[in-house]
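Our consortium's second objective concerns turning raw sequence data into structural hypotheses that experimental partners can test. To show how far this objective has progressed, the report includes one record in full. It was chosen at random from the queue rather than selected for favorable results. The single chain below, 69 residues long, was entered without modification.
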Amino acid sequence: MRHQYKTGEEVRLGDQIRYAGSAGMVVTVVHRGNDHTTGFMICTDAHSLVFLDKAGEDLEFVKRGYPNI
């Protein structure tokens, strides 16, 4: 399953994001299907590491961090 921000961009490693008002970055993306958990991990100024299984309203895409990935 591919994860998308509310604006439609795919969540990718290195993306610059804002989560609950804090600037941060996507540090891990897990794409496994069927019975396995999928999601991504972010790190922000206010939260050291947070694993999310979907991009909710608190997550905002800012810009690509690694454009070739």
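The partners drew two points from this record. Residues 39 and 54 are 6 Å apart (CA to CA). Residues 16-63 form one domain. Both points have been shared with the crystallography group to help prioritize constructs.
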